[in-house]
Each structure stands twice: as C-alpha cells, then as structure tokens.
Model the fold of this input.
Amino acid sequence: MTAHTKGSGMTWVGRAIRRLEDPALVRGHGHFTADLPATRWVRFVRSPVASGYIHNIELPAEGLVITASGLKGLKPIRPMLHKFNYKPVSQPILATGVVRFVGEPIAAVVATSKEAAEDLADEVKISISETTAVVDTATALNPAYPAVHSDVPGNVVVEGRVKTAEFDGVWGGAHKIVKLDARSRRQNATPIEARAGHAAYDAVTGRITLTCTTQMPHLTRTAIADILGMPESDLRVIAPDVGGGFGQKMSLASEYVVLVWLARKLKTSVAWAEDRRENLIAGFHSRDQAIALEGAFDENARLVALKADVVANVGAYSCFPTTCGVEPLMAMAELPGPYDVRQYQCRARGVLTNTCPMAPYRGVSRPVITFALERLMDKAAGAFGLAPDEIRRRNLIDKFPYTSATGLIYDEGSYKKTLEMALMAVDVPSFRARQKQAREHGRHLGIGFATFAERTGYGSPAFAARGMEITPGWENVIVSIDPSGGVEARIGSSPHGQGLRTTLAQIIADEIGIAPQAIKIVHGDTDRTPYGWGTFASRSLVISGGATLIAARKVRAKLIKIASHMLEAAPGDIVLEDGHAKVAGTDRVVAIAQMAREAYTQTHRFKGEIEPGLTETGSYDPPGTFSNACHVAIVEVDTETGRVAVEKFVVAEDAGRIINPMIADGQVHGGVAQGIGNALLEEIIYDEDGGILTASLADYLPPTAHEIPPIELHHMETPSVNSITRAKGLGEGGTIGAPAAVINAINDALSPFGVSIDEMPATPQRIRAALRASSFPSPARGGGLGRGPA
Amino acid sequence: MTDITLTINGHAHAIRVEDRRTLADAIREDCGQTGTHLGCEHGICGACTVIVDGEPLRACLMFAVQADGKSIRTVEGLADGDELHPMQRAFMEHHGLQCGFCTPGFLMLAVGVLEKDPDISDDDLLDVLSSNLCRCTGYQNIIKAVRAAAKEMRGK
Done:
C-alpha cells in the first residue's frame, strides 16, 4: 500500500484500511487476562440469598479462605455525587455482616488451581438468616418494606428534578396530551469474555501488577490504591486484549481489590476468572427503568411540553466511578432527545433494591428513554392521524447550535435529513402495500422508526455538571519518534475492540507523513501510558483522537523545523510524505528516521533553536458533540406464537467526519445487533425473593446470527465544530435506536388488534399476553412466518 | 489422574489430567495453547470451538480424557507459517472481528464445516454460524467473511 499523505493530496483519514489489531487476533495470539498462568487461583463464595444477616462462616479445616474479618482496614467502595440529593452507600469488598443481593461475594477461597479452589469453596458453610428482600421498585418505595441500607430510609438513593419556567402555563394550554408507561426490564451487557483479573507481586520492587479486563486502567489503579491505602506508584494496572466491555467493565469490581490484597499478602501471583453464571448474576446489570411519560402537543402536532417520571431500579450498591445516578440522571438530562421541545418537567429517582448493582451498559439509559419517547411519538401520530415520519418531521430540531430544555448544546446535525434518507431507503409506500396484502393472508408485517440524538465525546464540564466527585473527561496522548525512527503514541484511552490502534494511527499518519502500519499505539498499561480515563461513552475517537491530533501536529511542526535546518529551506517549503521530509519542487529530501536520529544525537547542530528529542504531548477536553440517526425496522410478528422476525434494518447515520468507514460500520452493526437483542430477547429475571432465574446463556439470550437481519447503512457527514478531528462518536448509537425501532414496528404490525407493547424486551410471552388481553377479534389463524417453526 | 496424549496441530502433548478436566482447560493450561477461549463453559457461546478428528465441537463440553489419541486442531494451527488460512484473511478483509475474543471459535467452526461440506448453501451456513455468539460485530461481517472464504476454499 502506498503511503498517500498530505503532500500528495490523499489522506489516510477517511479510508477503510484494514485493522492493525487483527493479525495477532486471527492467529489466536491475542493476550487475554485469563491466559496468564498463576500460582494461586481464587474462587469467590457468593451469597445464595438476596437479603440477610451472616450468622456464621464455617471454614474448611485446611486451605486459605479470606472473609471480611480478614480484610479489616480496607475502605469500602463508596462513590460520591454532590448533587441530586444523592446519599452515598458503602459496598464492602467482601460482605460484612449483611448480604444485599444474590451473588454478592462473601469469601475468597485461595488454592493452587481453579478446580481445587472450587472444591474448597464447596466446603465453606455460611449460615445466613434471611430477611425480607425488596426486589422491585414498587416494593422498595413502599414504606412498609425495609431499607436496603439503613442509612437510606425509603430506598431513594438519588433524586433529580427539573422544571422549565413556563412549563405549567404551556401544559395547561396544550391541545392534546398523550400518555405512556414505558418499561425496560433488566439486562446484562454480556461481553463474550467475562471478567478476569490476575495480580502478581514483584519481589524486587514490591510492586503489584494487576492485569484485568477493565475499560479504565488508570482509574482502577487510583481506586484500588485508595481502598488499600497503598501508594499508587506501587500498583501497575494492565488492560491487555479485552474481550468486549460495553460498559460492564468500566465499573470497579471488588474482586480485583481482593486479588491485589492477596498478591501483596502472599507475595505471589493470584488469579480469578469469572464464570458465566457469576457474570450473569453479579457482573453488573443495567436498563432496569420505568418511565411515565406524557407529551403535550399543540394543534399542529408540535410537542410543546414533556413530562416524565423516571424510576430506575439501581440494585444494592452504587457503581464506581459513575455512581448509580448514571441511569436516572442521564434519562433526566437527555430525555427531550432530538426534538425541539421547550418546556420540560422531570423527576428521576434511583431506588435501591436487593438485586445486582446496575452500571453503565452501551447507550446508558438512552436506549430506554429513546424507546419511551419514540413510543410516545408513534402514539401521538396515531392520535393526530399522522404518519410516524410526519410527526417526527414536524418536531425534529433543525437550527444549530441548539440549546435543549435541559441546557445541553447540540452542535450541527442532520436530524431531518437522516429521516428523509432512511425513508428513501425503505420505500414506505411499497411497504404499506405489501403490509396490506400480507394482512389479507393473516401475516402481520410492521415498520417502526426511531430518530435520536447520541451525545458523544463530552469532556470534564459535562461530567462535572452531574456533580461527580470523580470527574472524568479529558485525555492525554504522547506521540514520540525514537532515534531509530519508530513512531509510538501512548494513550490514556483503553480500547477493547473499537479499532482505535488503527484509527489513531490514521490520524497521526496524515500529520507526519508516515504510513499508519508503521505507527504503534500503546494503551492499557499504567506504566507505559499517560493518565487517562479509558474507553466508554463513545468518547475515545473524539477525545483521544483529538489529543492525538494535537500531539501529532506538534511533532509535525518540530519535524518541519528540523528539516528546515537540515535541508536549509524555508519551513513553508517542507512537505512530509512517504516517510520523508522533502523540499517542494526540488530533489532535496531527508528521511524522517534520519531526522529523528539527529533530534537526539546531533542536537548541537540546531544551535539551541530546537529542543532535544521528539516527544510531544496533546491534551484535549472538548465540550461534546451530538451524532444523530434514524433507524427503521421491518418486522413480521407471528400472532399465534408471539415470535418476531426482523426482516430488515436500515440505519441513516451522521457521526461527523468518519476516520475509517469500515470500522465505523462495524460499530453500528454491533450496536444495532445488541439493540435488537435488547428489544426482543434479553432479560434478567428475578423471582419475588430476589433469586435469579436467568443464570446461563440458555436463559439469558444474546442474539445469534439468526436473529439479526441484514443491516443496511447510509451515512451523512456533518463535521463537528466541537471536535478538532471533526469526528463525532458512534459507539452507542446502534444500541440506542434499535429497541425503539423494533418495538414500534411490532406495534405497527399489531395495529389491527388495538394493543400497545410498551415494554422491552418484547418477548413472545409479552406479545401473546397483550394479544390475549385485547378486546379486538382474535388474530387470524395460519399466520406462519415462512421461516420454519419458532 | 490419567495419562493421555493430545495431538494438537500435529504436535503430541503427553499430559496427566484429572478425569474431570475439560478438553478446553487441557488445551489452554496443560498444552499452553491459549488461542482457544472460554466464554461460557456450558456449551452455548462456542468461543472454545476446536476441530477434533475433523468435527468442529465445543471443547468445554468434552473431557480431555475423551480426546486421548485424537487429532485436535486449534486456531494456532490454521496458518501455514506466515501464510494465513483463507478464513483468517477473510475475517481481516471483511472486518469480521472487533475484540477478537469469539474469533478463534468462529474460525474453527467455519473451517470445520466448510472442509466437511464445501458446497454448503448460504442458508445452511447461516444456520451453522448461529451456533456461536459474537457480541461485537452483529454478525454482518462474519457472514460476509465466511462466504468469501468459502468461495476461495472451493476454488482451491
């Protein structure tokens, strides 16, 4: 591949080059945490009950078992918000006297192999006197039921309220009010690699190296050092190849704290590999939220005011670092979505229950609020006799920058254009004809839309607005060229599948005239990289990419200065391309590797005008940017069985400037697939005592290739003024829009039966229940799906 | 403990294992071939798929002692030195992987099936691929990659 760079008029940015990550991964040479050998293996003994007092822990006669009494002096996990009436709650590293959810770790069993640790764990006898568990929010909010934490009576752990000044007047004068009770059940991000950790003691330095499946290695180091009261410099955290995270791996796992503590105590290596059951019951949940939503419309079907009551079941503890406020408060801040609605009232509560803690999962709250809002728009369309696209067209924002009712500033987007683009792609009139024909044969097709805004790449001011004690946001990147000419960028972000090694190399390549394949991106090692926040919230390409661009521009400036000295030419005449600095229009040329050598070894030649070395730092902390998209799903519902087949899925997306179209498409594909799974299949189910019924992948159902239809993508590029690379984030959008589009399509398909499915996932059971409860004539028989039995 | 020999990618590994040890654990821990990954250990996700005597199967559902003397192929054996297998190349060309954790299982599943049935129909191939889970790609590019590699493998 020729190195087309700036000088030649071609850029690396914008090209679908192959990923630099792949050669090792397709050979099975990736380094994943569980691949590391260890001298000791840990098995956690977990609570079998949702709520109770630990009476006694009977330990086996032999073997090492650590319980809370052995961990005295360790601080609990206690994240903090300084706003929204947040009440801090403490999560002990191992359950201390009380258990609060099924799966909470009580004891750590240590043995020389995984099997021996499991055998030993079976011999730990724990007696717990069970107390009444509060599992759902209705129970938790009922004063007759106990508090999950005695210092939070009533179980409301966080409560945000917002109301615009003219809300009451506008609400009272509205032409039509449309109401909806939307509900999302609990879900699990389900990375195919469950969590794992490996802590190793270094006898020479006394330091511990924790290798673990984290999305934020630096903050993991800070948090564990705080909890253990150890100097942060004595802890190195490595995030090697990480097998997907989707948010689940950004929250601190108490298990990692135990591993570091054990490695220090035993002065050896200690490992834990979470099994799938542990992951499903205790590896963080998400999306458990109910939204009572009401929209006030004027006579032209314009949404003039929006009222919401959000209740999130946040589980037994508050996740670090975001806190359990993340779901309800993001709902409150972003509910108005892509629509121009000036009056807004919202109350958003996080409620403690005896269930696994909730934590961020791809999209965080927005799959649920988008689902609620898009259901509301469809209901309003029905009430006004409008088509779903028409009511959206009348309400989507189209003047930029746009300041939302909650004060968020939307940079330029293409909300209406992506809607039109998606409509063109699906050809609604011919679909409606096909739908009509199919209905005559007892088959029920439906089309569903979702238009949404995806807030991405936001820096520290946005996090500070939430009142987070730990306020993430910025990123640092160090770009260097060593004396051999090797280019390296050390980044604080921590990619785990997003292809950042490739896209950042493309950004650098354009600046310094060296092909991306020759540029190494170093991440996931606190000893090798500058402090940074990691990879989450669709931020890395925008923020780490911006910091990379800044650092690369500095390196470029320095290279031009050096070349101007060495080639005795004006800086403005120097071109960097194909690994060389050239004087434009001449044959004078010097290799960048040679310049790098001289930047270290011949500094006297630069007469003090150029600082030694070739290392530059870029730092970036942007205000944030909004991607936007329109999703359209076409489904067929089998009214006999409640089975839904997604026939087609169309995405019209605008994520600003696209650095690598192949990688961008991959992110959207994966996001949409998770959204379809969230919409139809995925549900963590608790029984009334807080026991978990979905503890295997035979019960909790991520979609397979069978459930995901061909996904058709259409792109627009509205470059962002709030991002120096002009790129917007797009990691979460697929998951944000898909549930709404799919369930709107189901409702469209079922429109002859007068039902409204306002709950996700829309499982066959829920669809059948709705049809059974319908007073409309029962569905025509014989409506098979044509794809074999369900 | 039982003495067994696992032949992995043509190399014989004489190992001593407990009868309860799964083939997956033996491949990874006793034979040091960590390219085979464990995603669920209950036979659903397929990340641990290897080829045993020509059949793609889940290494977490087989005991190591059951594989004694059998010929096992893992992801590490797909490439011929520097020359990648067409399936590996196709996954790279079509962006059939993101985090790469499920990839070895998908590669072995697809290779195993296509070696047995090179002319498998697109529908049947989709059926086969739906036996493994991927959480990153939405399967779009995995399907594309496997179809492209199938074409190339048929051409050879």
